[in-house]
Amino acid sequence: MLSSGSQRSSEIWADLSLLQQKLSKKVKIEPLSREVRLIGGCDCGIRKDKGIGVITVVELPGLREIEWSYWVGTIALPYRSGYLGFREVPLLVGAYRKLKNRPDLFLIDGQGIAHPRRIGLASHFGVVIDQPTIGCAKSKLIGDYREPPSTRGSYAPLLDGSELLGYVVRTKDNVRCLFASPGHRTDFPDALFWILHLTTGYRVPQPIRFAHHHAKEIQV
DNA sequence: GCGACAG
DNA sequence: ATCTTGTCGC
Ligand SMILES: [Mg+2]
What we know:
By secondary structure, the protein is α+β, with helices and mostly antiparallel strands. It has helices spanning about 10-25, 85-100, 120-130, 190-195, 205-220; strands at about 40-45, 50-60, 65-75, 105-110, 135, 155-160, 165-170, 180-185. The termini are far apart. The structure holds two DNA strands. GO terms for molecular function: deoxyribonuclease V activity; magnesium ion binding; RNA endonuclease activity producing 5'-phosphomonoesters, hydrolytic mechanism; single-stranded RNA binding.
């Protein structure tokens, strides 16, 4: 029973899983078409049932922040691995609509297609706004890989059997790897390239760091 | 039954 | 994600 009033908890997740299967069919993995000058960094802060979604816009070259927006909303679902998009996408869409600038690419704190149904947060958000996105997660959701050397720039493919999902990337010497995967309207080389080019001195890419900082301070 | 499990 | 101070190492 898709879309109804009250329903059993088990049915809710089953319905959301079906919805993800539909959404995943809209995901396009293709080379970034635009020239990238403005990049949007996305992250959310959540406490209890109140959440805030933040998007910062950084300019290239320089990675200087030129704008940022946020959106506050109520979180209806509890966290469950594989369903993060349903909690954070609404908040990010709200912030997206308040932006004055239009980023050429969005970097999101979460997986792209490296997801059980190939529709992680970055892909989900990308399909909803139909804009280029790349997923940049701090830990793994699914897939197998061999640990890359400890030097910045090292990487290894993230695989589900023989299917490539993304890359496990060392963005800084002697720190845990990041998990990069294309979200929507970007491809694997794009994910690897941008994750490394937007990382300077810190493990997490600057755009996402800025968004994270804003979400944390506003939430007070 | 056991282990994995984005944020 | 959030709860939380100082401390060890690059
Ligand atoms: Mg986050």
